[in-house]
Specification:
Layout: H1 2-17, H2 27-35, H3 41-59, E1 62-65, H4 69-81, E2 95-99, H5 127-134, E3 138-143, E4 160-161, E5 165-166, H6 182-189, E6 195-200, H7 206-211, E7 215-218, E8 238-243, H8 246-256, H9 264-270, E9 292-295, H10 308-323, E10 327-329, H11 337-344, H12 347-364, H13 374-383, H14 396-402, H15 409-432, E11 437-441, H16 446-452, E12 456-463, E13 469-475, H17 481-495
Parallel strand pairs: 2-3, 2-6, 9-10, 9-11
Antiparallel strand pairs: 1-3, 4-5, 6-8, 7-8, 7-12, 11-13, 12-13
Helix pairs in contact: 1-3, 3-4, 11-15, 12-14, 12-15, 15-16
Length: about 500
């Protein structure tokens, strides 16, 4: 313990003496420090490991640390010394935490926070992990999450799982950390890692990003591979970066997009959306100029909750957007709104059937596993009630899914309703008003983006009177990531709202 403390002091002294500190450092800052010989990847990994040891017992954001992380850092340092081609990549030597439902073929477990998958063996790295490794990134460990991505129980608190218990919001401990990618958000917010990966089926990137004051990108479905990710719905599942800045998130996005033979249909279809030269070219200071941004004040499902406090709080944000050249299109109307909303109610029917099929297929492909089906998972949880109180919460969502029997007439009708709701709701709204993005407070509108497979970016937008963070969300049509990045970066660079948690534990 004394050696660990000395190590942190020495690292801090060495780096601070040369006017560079690791906490809050961006990828560009770190790469500059690497190139100036002010920092090594080994230094960086050692710092984060000590940081995790200190803070993780408080916040429960990390479920496992990669025992090979230091060795991987040493390899990265040698590659940089040798000027290997891989060392020129932006993510080279950068530590990444990946959510615990994203497979890594190494000494780390992939469990979705559940004891049912502890010691199971995955056949290969997830597609996004493979791309991270090809970019030279270091897999630092697994981020904690809401167990089974919040699909086990309707009563499960955000951020709870059997293995690490309840994750804690680092800004205000009594506030929800929100969504299932809680560990991914908390870990970067508290500087326990440089960048992280989260997943979203229904708000689990956008929501924790808003609640923990980080940037989260929910990509268009298929832009990033889902192969090797413990699934809920191939129709809605996506993997995206969660970082402290828009630029860092874009570095990660550039690294993980593209074709994957193990998710061939979706990733091939989405190739047309990837811009030539990548996404970094869209980090433009004047990115807000001329953008048509839609604001909905009357439809909670698509945006505002219509309460006076929210309206007043976000009026200053709208003024910022206007002052920087954006054109706000307000008081938008949705034709046949009640009918469209009624079609969205088909979501639960679709997800129940899809989740059982997808999870069973995933479990059967594992090399070894204590469970091979959803039925096995349910039985495991019932049997091991004494395993760190694994049965503190019921399995009603799992049980509902288990009762389904594939995609029958009811499910096909539900899926058709969701397709129509997206086409005649969000898509019509965007196209009729020639919008570049829909702007919503917090992470509102996430449900519309999730159901239709559309992208969204959440950017820190400030803190309430109690210190609780909140974000602003920009959502667009499929493949609109370049435009959304320009908008998000323009807003971030103008405002710089984000600040690290003000907590004595972070010193």
């Amino acid at each position: 313990m004394i050696a660990s403390i000395i190590l942190v002091i020495l690292l801090s002294h060495t780096i601070e003496s040369s006017k560079f500190t690791i906490p809050e450092a961006t990828i560009n800052d770190i790469q500059a420090a690497f190139n100036q010989n002010k920092l090594t990847s080994k230094d960086l990994v050692e710092f984060y490991i000590q940081r995790i040891r200190k803070l993780n017992p408080i916040y429960r954001a990390v479920i496992e640390v990669n025992p090979d992380a230091l060795h991987l850092a040493e390899i990265a340092d040698q590659e940089r010394k040798n000027k290997d081609p891989i060392s020129r990549f932006g993510l080279h030597g950068i530590p990444v935490l990946v959510k615990d439902n994203i497979a890594t073929k190494d000494k780390l477990n992939t469990t979705a926070g559940s004891y049912a998958l502890l010691n199971s063996v995955v056949p290969r790295d997830a597609g996004v992990v493979n791309k991270l490794r090809e970019s030279g990134a270091i897999i630092l460990g697994k981020a904690s999450m809401t167990e089974w991505a919040a699909f086990r129980s309707s009563l499960l608190p955000n951020g709870w799982n059997a293995r690490t218990k309840q994750a804690v919001n680092p800004y205000v401990a009594t506030l929800t950390p929100c969504g299932s990618s809680t560990g991914s958000a908390i870990s970067v917010a508290t500087n326990m890692v440089t960048v992280s990966l989260g997943t979203e089926t229904y708000g689990s990137i956008l929501c924790p990003s808003s609640a923990n004051s980080v940037v989260g990108i929910k990509p268009t479905i298929g832009l990033t591979s889902r192969a090797g990710v413990i699934p809920i719905s191939p129709r809605q599942d996506t993997v995206g970066p969660m970082c402290r800045t828009v630029a860092d998130a874009v570095y990660v996005l550039d690294a993980i997009v593209g074709f994957d033979k193990n998710d061939a249909v979706a990733t091939k279809k989405a190739l047309k959306y990837i811009p030539k030269g990548g996404y970094l070219n869209h980090l433009k200071l004047g990115g807000l100029k001329g953008k048509r941004l839609g604001v909905m004040r009357a439809y909670h499902y698509f945006g505002f909750s219509n309460d006076t406090e929210t309206l007043n709080m976000f009026e200053k944000h709208f003024n910022i957007l206007r002052q920087n050249g954006a054109i706000l299109v307000e008081n938008l109307e949705i034709v046949n709104f009640d009918h469209i909303i009624s079609m969205f109610s088909s979501q639960d029917i679709a997800l129940s059937a899809e989740s059982k099929l997808a999870l069973n297929a995933y479990l059967k492909k594992l090399v070894t596993s204590p469970v091979r089906s959803l039925a096995d998972v349910i039985a495991f949880n019932k049997k091991h009630v004494d395993l760190e109180r694994i049965d503190d919460y019921p399995q009603d969502v799992f049980l509902a899914a288990q009762k389904t029997n594939g995609i029958g007439k009811l499910e096909k009708e539900a899926l058709m309703n969701l397709t129509k709701a997206s086409k005649y709701g969000f898509e019509k709204l965007m196209n009729d008003n020639k919008l570049d993005a829909l702007v919503t407070p917090y992470f509102e509108g996430y449900s519309v983006l999730a159901i239709g497979g559309y992208p969204g970016i959440n950017v820190p937008a400030g803190y309430d009177k109690n210190g609780g963070p909140y974000g602003i969300c920009f959502g667009g049509l499929k493949g609109s990531e370049p435009t959304l990045i320009e908008i998000a970066y323009g807003f971030e660079q103008t405002t710089n709202f984000r600040k690290p948690p003000a907590n004595k534990n972070h010193v």
